[in-house]
Design goal:
The complex is a heterodimer.
Chain A lengths: L4 H32 L2 H14 L7 H26 L7 H16 L8 H22 L4 H19 L4 E3 L7 H4 L1 E5 L3 E4 H19 L1 H11 L1 H6 L4 H27 L1 E3 L7 H11 L11 H21 L3 H23 L6
Antiparallel strand pairs in A: 1-4, 2-3
Helix pairs in contact in A: 2-13, 3-8, 3-11, 3-12, 3-13, 4-5, 4-6, 4-11, 5-6, 5-11, 8-9, 9-11, 12-13
Chain B lengths: L3 E12 L2 E12 L3 E5 L6 H9 L9 E4 L2 E2 L7 H4 L2 E4 L11 H5 L6 E2 L2 E2 L1 H14 L15 H14 L4 E5 L7 H16 L3 E5 L3 H7 L2 E6 L2 E7 L5 H9 L13 H4 L3 E9 L5 E8 L3 E6 L5 H8 L7 E6 L2 E3 L4 H7 L1 E4 L3 H5 L6 H6 L3 H4 L8 H14 L16 H13 L5 E5 L7 H16 L3 E5 L3 H7 L2 E6 L2 E7 L8 H9 L2 H4 L1
Parallel strand pairs in B: 3-10, 3-11, 6-9, 9-10, 15-20, 15-21, 18-19, 19-20
Antiparallel strand pairs in B: 1-2, 1-4, 4-5, 7-8, 11-12, 13-14, 13-16, 16-17, 21-22
Classes of the chains: A mainly alpha, B alpha/beta.
Chain lengths: 347, 507
């Protein structure tokens, strides 16, 4: 029997090739389905709200509002995507956003240095993020604990920055990024600057995650940290980077809020923003254990949250019920996602 | 013989287009011990998982139990059909009592209240029948491995299973426990149970097997009745060719062996490795043998900087080098293939392409940052062709590949850096026969090309088959060295004597 092994190999090889071709097609369909992710849910929500609100959803003005409302959360969620891809979590983004906005606004009131408020906000965020990252990467503390701590500590610093009052600056430089729009076709189509920034952040994140060496290393650390270390990846540097990015984007979010409101309050600004950001990432299909996910999913997730808020107001649902419905939609969407991905799960 | 209790006809199973099982026919009768043999990856575990209900077979096949066609689905499917499996890693909850484990999932309760007493009474007779020397109320955590196996068997009997599948049941047992287990298996056979006994060990199959079925590459390649059971027949069926041509060693160590490439001097970690020195020359394959726990993997980890050392230094091509992390080792040209590819080597959710390129992404990058996707693609294609890695395409996740292909995938990542020193830790563990022989010829070709290779292996025939020289470790120290001479081949006896410390007795 072992002797005719060679003659058997021929037909066996061809069937494998055919099987492989069919498998490749199935693989592509699967990739397409998982790439689309929650996009169908987003579209169904949009269309549903359009009919329920008697045609008030798909208007240029309303879409502009939705995009503007989604902007800050999209930026925070982009940073959160980096962190969750490594299997971590950043609970401190809301507090960092508040501290960065406070730092920026305080600086903007100084006549000579006023123009520097924007980079000051970004650097404040980056600084807090790097501290988070260093504690997690170098002292090897659990991310949940570290960022839970900084959620509280940085909130305190934010209040300290404004002596626990609201800081106003009606003539803040670069105010256009908060309230202006980029005109695409004069008089017909324009897009809020906040949304432009959010889209740029998404594009930048995609570039880093999918087109750079660092991006592959982020996925690798999330997929298997021990293997990443043995493969020569500087895991500590990757971790400091992702928490740094999350902080930086939170700082950017703070700047966007400051420019939009001309004001910031260390106690109130950014309260529980981290939850919306995490929700957007999870809705986007990124795995909580790390290693799997995409930035486009996060964008869709952030848009779902914004469309829900906007649509429920348009339809006239009371504020209290909005909470209940949003919570249920999140659980339902993730349940749907589980069900959808079951077919592609490894056996 | 009487009617078969289990009949499988044309049962197949494929994953990601790779056939793990091809139209297997298996017939098992009540009151027999049916040995199932085959190399790792031959399809034994897939077959078992189909019988347990963990995998659903491809459509087309048929499974009959006592003549009735059955569909085995879900985790309880096997048990409901009368099939119980005792896995290598026992599936007991150590924090619960023996009785609670046996009743797990089918607890007796009265209006929601657990009837512990009734459960204890219920398992008493079964434990007695099995000759157990522990009580139903004993915590499983307090039992030895042999006793735990008894609990597993009791659970199967309690579920009124007619077919008992045992997967290498003696691996964790002492000799005495094994003997008791054999006696019990004979008793169960006499009571009319059908036992499917999976094992690599020829002596066990001789002692117990009424019939032997051999699987290779997912196919059933032969069934032998008791009188036909012979070691050479079984090995030929398992391997599919003559064993002598299996290990490939064409490179000539004396011709190529020039300068020492890697010299580790007095390496110690203050714990498991106690001052070890070894040298590997260019074009040389050095085996690092020893019993499990002798410190071989730990020594390799010290060399590549994966663990902190308390003393010792490294020389590479005669120059002292300082290596503090696996990353620095790779930069210096020392590559290490881990013994645990799933936990420490591969990124199972990432594509084969990313897995192969991971170590050289930085070197290939454009502008220092951006991925060179054409280069990565070309390298992955080359690796697939050169190491004959079998997967649908380079984009599929590494987790879907068979053990042998995963190992080749990991090896191709290391080869991408063109290492001067290659340290292979159990390179063929959990790899099927075909891939094994391919890995041997890859090692041989690398040695021919001048690479210095250190192979850690617990498989003595493998070490003897592919190595030029064998360094043996015992309890954290180098116990000695066995060299292949013109008239003195390497022998298992010499290596084992050093590994166990028996060489002093001979002298």
């Amino acid at each position: 029997m072992p002797d005719n092994g060679a003659s058997q190999a021929q037909p066996a090889a061809t069937t494998t090739t055919n099987g492989a071709a069919a498998e490749t097609r199935r693989q592509r369909v699967r990739v397409l389905i998982s790439a689309l992710g929650m996009l169908p849910v987003l579209l169904i929500l949009c269309i549903g709200f359009h009919f329920l609100s008697e045609g008030r959803f798909f208007t240029g003005q309303n879409l502009g509002i939705v995009l503007q409302q989604a902007a800050v959360n999209t930026v925070l969620a982009a940073g959160m995507t980096f962190v969750i891809l490594t299997g971590g979590i950043d609970l401190s983004v809301g507090s960092i956003l508040a501290a960065s906005a406070m730092a920026g606004l305080t600086l903007s009131k100084l006549p000579e240095l006023g123009m520097l408020w924007l980079p000051a906000s970004l650097l404040t965020g980056l600084g807090f993020g790097i501290v988070n990252g260093a504690l997690i990467a170098l002292l090897r503390l659990p991310p949940f604990i570290v960022t839970l701590g900084s959620l509280t500590a940085v909130r305190g610093l934010a209040r300290l920055l404004g002596a626990d009052t609201t800081v106003f600056n009606p003539s803040i430089p670069y105010a256009f990024i908060g309230n202006g729009s980029l005109t695409l076709v004069p008089g017909v189509a324009s897009i809020p600057w906040l949304s432009v920034i959010a889209l740029l952040v998404i594009l930048l994140s995609w570039l880093v995650l999918r087109r750079t060496v660092l991006g592959v290393h982020i996925y690798a650390v999330g997929g298997n940290e021990s293997a990443a270390r043995l493969a020569g990846i500087k895991v500590w540097a990757v971790l400091i980077f992702v928490y740094g990015i999350s902080g930086l984007f939170a700082g950017l979010g703070g700047a966007m809020q400051a420019a939009r409101l001309y004001a910031a309050n260390g106690l109130q600004l950014g309260q529980s923003y981290e939850l919306d950001a995490i929700t957007a990432v999870i809705l986007g299909g990124t795995s909580f254990v790390g290693g799997i996910g995409s930035i486009w999913g996060t964008l869709v997730g952030a848009l779902i949250i914004a469309v829900l808020s906007n649509g429920l107001i348009l339809v006239g649902v009371s504020d209290i019920w909005q909470y209940v419905i949003k919570g249920l939609v999140i659980i339902g969407a993730v349940a749907l996602d589980r069900y959808r991905l079951q077919g592609s799960a490894r056996t | 013989m009487n009617d078969p209790i289990l009949e499988m006809r044309g049962v197949s199973k494929s994953f990601f287009g790779i056939k793990a099982l091809r139209a297997v026919d298996l017939t098992v009768y009540a009151g027999e011990v049916h040995a199932l043999m085959g190399e790792n990856g031959a399809g034994k575990s897939t077959l078992m998982k189909i019988l347990s209900g963990a995998y659903r077979p491809d459509p087309g096949g048929e499974i009959r139990i006592e003549g009735h066609p059955v569909r085995i689905e879900g985790p309880l499917g096997g048990r409901n059909a009368g099939i119980s499996i005792i896995y290598q890693e026992l599936s007991l909850a150590p924090n619960l009592s023996v009785a609670e484990n046996i009743y797990l999932g089918r607890e007796i309760s009265h209006s929601g209240m657990l009837a512990r007493g009734e459960m204890r009474d219920g398992v008493g007779p079964i434990l007695k029948r099995l000759g157990a020397d522990f009580l139903p109320s004993t915590l499983v955590a307090h039992l030895s491995m042999g006793q735990r196996q008894l609990v597993e068997i009791a659970r199967a009997l309690h579920a009124r299973s007619k077919i008992l599948i045992m997967d290498e049941p003696t691996t964790a047992l002492s000799a005495g426990e094994s003997a008791r287990l054999f006696a019990l298996i004979r008793q169960l056979r006499a009571e009319g149970l059908a036992i499917i006994y999976i094992s690599h060990r020829m002596d066990e199959v001789y002692a117990l097997g009424d019939r032997v079925t051999v699987l290779r590459d997912g196919r059933l390649v032969g069934s032998l009745d008791k009188p036909e059971i012979r070691a050479d027949t079984i090995v030929r069926l398992m391997v599919g060719r003559d064993v002598s041509s299996f290990y490939k060693k064409d490179h000539d160590p004396d011709a190529g062996r020039g300068h020492p490439v890697l010299a580790a001097i007095d390496m110690a970690d203050g714990h498991r490795v106690k001052g070890c020195s070894l040298t590997v020359h260019a074009s040389e394959v050095v085996g690092l043998a020893g019993l499990i726990g002798a410190g071989r993997t730990e020594l390799a980890h010290l060399i590549i900087g994966a663990a902190p050392k308390t003393s010792g230094r490294l020389e590479l091509e005669g120059q002292p080098v300082e290596i503090r992390s696996p990353g620095e080792a790779l930069e210096a040209g020392i590559a290490y293939l881990t013994e645990d590819r799933k936990a420490l080597g591969l990124f199972l959710d990432m594509s084969c392409l990313d897995n192969i390129n991971l170590a050289v992404l930085g070197r290939d990058a454009k502008l220092g940052w951006f991925l060179d996707r054409d280069k990565a693609r070309a390298r992955a294609d080359r690796a697939f062709a050169g190491l004959s890695i079998r997967a649908a395409n380079v984009g599929v996740p590494a987790g879907g590949l068979s053990g042998g292909n995963q190992q080749k995938l990991l090896l191709s990542r290391l080869l991408a850096i063109a290492p001067r020193v290659l340290i292979l830790d159990e390179p063929t563990r959990g790899v099927d026969v075909g891939a094994k022989s391919e890995i041997y010829s890859i090692i041989d070709n690398l040695a021919k090309a001048g690479t210095a290779i250190l192979v850690i292996s617990s498989d003595l025939p493998e070490i003897i088959g592919i190595c030029d020289r064998v360094v043996v470790m015992r309890a954290g120290r180098i116990a000695g060295e066995v060299t292949r001479g013109a008239n003195s081949p390497l022998t298992q006896e010499d290596i084992m004597a050093l590994a166990t410390g028996m060489e002093h007795l001979d002298a």
